[in-house]
Write a structure and sequence with these properties.
The structure is a homodimer of 460-residue chains. With 460 residues, chain A is an alpha/beta fold. Chain A has two domains: 129 residues, Rossmann fold (3-Layer(aba) Sandwich); 251 residues, Rossmann fold (3-Layer(aba) Sandwich). Chain A is 41% helix and 16% strand. Chain A has 18 helices and 15 strands. In chain A, helix 2 packs across helix 11 and helix 11 packs across helix 12. The longest helix of chain A has 21 residues. Chains A and B meet through helix 6, helix 8, helix 15 and helix 17 of A and helix 6, helix 8, helix 15 and helix 17 of B.
Amino acid sequence: MRVMTDPERATKILLTEAEMPRQWYNLLADLPTPPPPVLHPGTLQPVGPDDLSPLFPMALILQEVATDRYVDIPEEVLDVYRLWRPSPLFRAHRLEKALGTPAKIFYKYEGVSPAGSHKPNTAVPQAYYNAQAGITRLTTETGAGQWGTSLAFACAQYGLDCEIWQVRASYDQKPYRKIMIETFGGTVHPSPSELTNAGRAILAANPDSPGSLGIAISEAVEVAAQDPNTNYALGSVLNHVLLHQTIIGEEALRQFAQIGMTPDVIVGCTGGGSNFGGLTFPFLREKLAGRMDPVIRAVEPASCPSLTKGVYAYDFGDTAGMTPLMKMHTLGHDFIPDPIHAGGLRYHGMSPLISHVYELGLIEAVAKSQQDCFAAGVQFARTEGIVPAPEPTHALAACVDEALRCKETGEEKVILTALCGHGHLDLAAYGAYLAGDLVDHELSRDEIAEFVAALPAVPA
Amino acid sequence: MRVMTDPERATKILLTEAEMPRQWYNLLADLPTPPPPVLHPGTLQPVGPDDLSPLFPMALILQEVATDRYVDIPEEVLDVYRLWRPSPLFRAHRLEKALGTPAKIFYKYEGVSPAGSHKPNTAVPQAYYNAQAGITRLTTETGAGQWGTSLAFACAQYGLDCEIWQVRASYDQKPYRKIMIETFGGTVHPSPSELTNAGRAILAANPDSPGSLGIAISEAVEVAAQDPNTNYALGSVLNHVLLHQTIIGEEALRQFAQIGMTPDVIVGCTGGGSNFGGLTFPFLREKLAGRMDPVIRAVEPASCPSLTKGVYAYDFGDTAGMTPLMKMHTLGHDFIPDPIHAGGLRYHGMSPLISHVYELGLIEAVAKSQQDCFAAGVQFARTEGIVPAPEPTHALAACVDEALRCKETGEEKVILTALCGHGHLDLAAYGAYLAGDLVDHELSRDEIAEFVAALPAVPA
């Protein structure tokens, strides 16, 4: 008989591998209204499977439009998941004490994965389904580098080649990411590159372009579309990506059940929305069913505020306009983020599904400054011992806000934070923060207006 | 009732926090003969507690000479250990498959700790006992940076200042280590520095000195000895350090008991010996008691082969000759390692306790080249998803050798490997290896002769 840990005293709430969820959860099955359709940019009609088949295997296309509530996780994917899953749920005893809060703070930690973030949760099934379909190479973009690392790892598991366009600013700032991708067997190009029409056009206009996720997506999509043995993989935004990430929330539900608690507030950072959707959608199911009532709060950078300051409109997923049109919160596909030391979350658009859920009023959103985020990250490192990636410091900053409100009101709220990765390869950003050199830039609506004005015209 | 995982199929063998060992194991209680005494460098008589009290708190001095079989771990230390302990034992299913071996390969992974290695296992109790004794600052050396990071983290837990001398070559090659130490609140100086007599003397002789652990120890010891509120902390070599690390092996024993297996071969890398001792000493207890009979094999770099090519003699622990004399396998305290991309393990001496155990014939030792080590590290990353620190790639290279021997003989040996840390902050070394630029240097006995000739004369 195994000795179990006192739930109130536990630091780590763990699941055994046998307790790992065997299905992903599809929020589309439970929403009161479906999200607006994805449109073909030429016809402005809803896209069908054939429109997507040059880029994705049919298994993923079907998942993209599936309305089944649950999707079985293949055994071959579960086998790889077991390298790090189930991931731990931590009780932040030492952070609570440092804050002097009566709140109970929990964090679901995805930094235990091979890439150090939640990204392998979808990289692995994407590589698997592509390998099953006979594809031999995947292309993709990467910003901070987490996604590229994850896909390179996943491709190594199923014998696929992996070619990655990394946003130039990140490529220059984070040389370790390139090496880690190469260690897993992947190939990395800085983006914009001379290897694609999209890249050459950008470089012709601006040889010093720092790049953007939108540009890198254009390059990866262009290469994949030209070769029948090559497909493209996206690390966030799309429905099937968020579907794969729901294993995070499904585990967290089981972990809270183990200690007999439910969260009152859930905070997660949002870039494209996959970590946030992955943790929160299973809780949203419970909320929609009336079984619990957590406040669910998205946290984005004040320098890239698609939910809090962007418009809700049809836009391209990439800069060159090669992708279908998706209705989403967007800063405009021409948006180029400042090349500031702040990791990912620097995408012009927000997942259409997250955008829709936000429009339905099922979630809240706030924006945080870089200074607040890194301050929370340093405090977290010194108390909990994990140096968070810049992305989840946004969630931590919002978590600290909530915990300090509880200190004022005396409320013993249970706060669940998405700690989606560690910051080992982002330490240059911490160095800049500690040296007082961190460049902060709160994007104004005026600055966004220029990009938003260029959105494609789509009849209502 | 919790659902448990099939032992044969499991990837991770986990212990609950309640199952975490509550005592460290002291091998001195079970050895057939005690190791030779530590000597005062002036009198050549065995040192007493008073000789050590300018540097260490009495609790650690008593642990250094204790002969009790078990030492209770303080509750305040267990509270911090729970941030990452018990650490997982992994079955390397995917590496086994890639090698085509009938051997069952397990690795005990210490990279889940705040610093990313086993070092916090002793940093935390060292900081705790010093805080209990009223000390307000700790000084130390660091080579690859794991130990400095660990002590900075530990000091943050108990409110101590932490000042670190980092070997110059590593300071220049690994800027992220400095930032991580600073994120935890520590202060870092490159060594040799202008801040100490020892550092100034080295710089006067060689302004471009790449430094060494021996030099950095001299600097840290000098500063600690001058201030009654400051103590010194050592990250390896000493008995109390190895004592604290035995929680690794105690956990591994419980994890093997959980799946009903015992290891036939245990391999671990050795620099000062703390990770190796920490994993293997509890198994050595079982071996000495006749309850199991594993082969225990130390693996060291061919470029710093203290066990396989050094002499067994009294030597200083530091370069300036400020420490007591310890009988150990040594390359001579003047030894300066090549500033090659290979992380830690670059210390001139070996733990006296490991050296004694080696002389008793209770363990074996082999040396591995950098090429073999990084090849094993890359294969491990691509199969198991963890990029290992350069140090444990030595153990992995020896593990691969053993597994391939099993492939030839058909033996289904159970191999336990000490995976003492991840390589996220050592990726530059992987970059050099992948680019074919890794400098390899197998140290010859002739090269060592010069340093060994300068050993202090100690009558037998």
